UniProtKB/TrEMBL annotation:
Coiled coil: none annotated. It comes from the Bacteria. SUPFAM superfamilies: FMN-dependent nitroreductase-like. This is Nitroreductase. InterPro entries: Nitroreductase-like, Nitroreductase/BluB. Residues 177-223 are annotated as: Disordered.
């Protein structure tokens, strides 16, 4: 058995990996083939110092890309053994993947893999139809399968209390001119390979909204076209909050998102209550869970939309130099 990944395997898997979500669609990752293993790295030039000073968002995004990479390799018949943060002296190397014993992909892996190109952040209002119990169960199991938890915020008063927390964290963040300027830098009004196209940014926020919009351009909103009155809000959390825990949470996030897509559900992310430390702590206490909230999702039945652009895969690959 060949115990090395090949360049073609890396390119094919990285094509799926780059479909992962990232803060403002910054795509803060690189992939390299080294000693027959594939490595996922943080791209330090794509950090958001004002929005993500600790690098939490970068690690969530790289974790999500890593999950896609794992799926792609498994579906191609060579699943990977993964080591997170393999080199203590090189913290920007998020993970190293080496080939495991070849095997056939499972139907579940194939279904999640097929969902990769269909998944996108849907920031538009959802239909009011409730998410059925079996779909909720699939979502929570997806988080559990990646060593994380997904807590559904149920009941009008719990959802209202969460909405208040999310809106107040949004106001706190909006006070920073650097934060607002950084967001503006990543909103795109003309076609671009990264950033958020204005058409994907969702409608303008309005005072009656329960959940805050991030303010990515804001499509005009038809009169009376309000958001669903009782959204399904889900909080994803990890057992700890080290750099490795955040990469684990990124993988769980992507598994939950792909499970949602595969279940015919739409989802969007809202991370304002994660980015404000006091709100994050309040959220943790309100859920009564051990561990740390890492992301909040809004899930439901959405109108059709379209995936956002990505940079060409060759821009994010570091291939070994071949000597002739
Ligand atoms: C760490 C992280 C935080 C995010 N926070 C938000 C958010 O607060 N509001 C939002 O609308 N989208 C948020 N997103 C979604 C990104 O904006 C989105 O993934 C990116 O623009 C790419 O678009 P796509 O998800 O449609 O592929 C977040 C994504 C990540 C990974």
């Amino acid at each position: 058995m060949d115990t090395r990944f090949a360049v073609e395997q890396l390119r094919a898997a990285a094509t799926d990996a780059v479909r992962a979500p990232s803060l403002h669609n910054t795509q803060p990752w690189r992939f390299r083939l080294r000693d027959g293993g594939i490595e996922v790295l943080v791209d330090p030039d794509r950090r958001l110092p004002a929005t993500d000073p600790t690098g939490w968002g970068v690690r969530i995004a790289c974790g999500a890309a890593l999950f896609n990479l794992r799926l792609a390799l498994a579906v191609a018949g060579t699943p990977a053994t993964v080591r997170l943060r393999p080199y203590p002296a090189e913290p920007d190397v998020v993970a190293r993947l080496v080939p495991d014993v070849p095997r056939r992909p499972t139907p579940a892996e194939q279904a999640l893999h097929a969902a990769i190109p269909r998944r996108f952040s849907n920031r538009a209002p959802f239909w009011p139809d409730p998410v059925p119990a079996d779909a909720r169960w699939r979502l929570t199991e997806a988080a559990r399968a990646e060593q994380c938890w997904l807590e559904l915020v149920v009941g009008v008063s719990a959802v209202n209390a969460f909405g208040e927390l999310a809106r107040s964290s949004h106001r706190v963040l909006e006070r920073s001119p650097q934060y607002r300027a950084e967001r503006q830098e990543w909103v795109r009004s003309t076609p671009a390979p990264d950033g958020i196209p204005a058409a994907s940014g969702g409608p303008q926020g309005e005072p009656q909204d329960l959940l805050p919009s991030r303010g990515f351009g804001g499509l005009d909103r038809a009169p009376g076209r309000d958001f669903e009155p009782e959204p399904l809000v889900a909080v994803l959390g990890s057992p700890g909050n080290t750099a490795v825990d955040q990469v684990v949470a990124g993988q769980a996030l992507q598994r939950v998102l792909l499970t949602a897509t595969d279940s015919g559900l739409a989802a969007s992310m809202l991370s304002q209550p994660i980015e404000v430390p006091s709100a994050r702590e309040q959220l943790r206490l309100s859920l009564g869970r051990f561990g740390t909230p890492q992301m909040v999702l809004r899930v439901g039945y959405g109108q059709p939309g379209w995936p956002t652009p990505r940079r060409d895969v060759d821009e994010v690959l570091d291939l070994p130099v071949t000597r002739s």
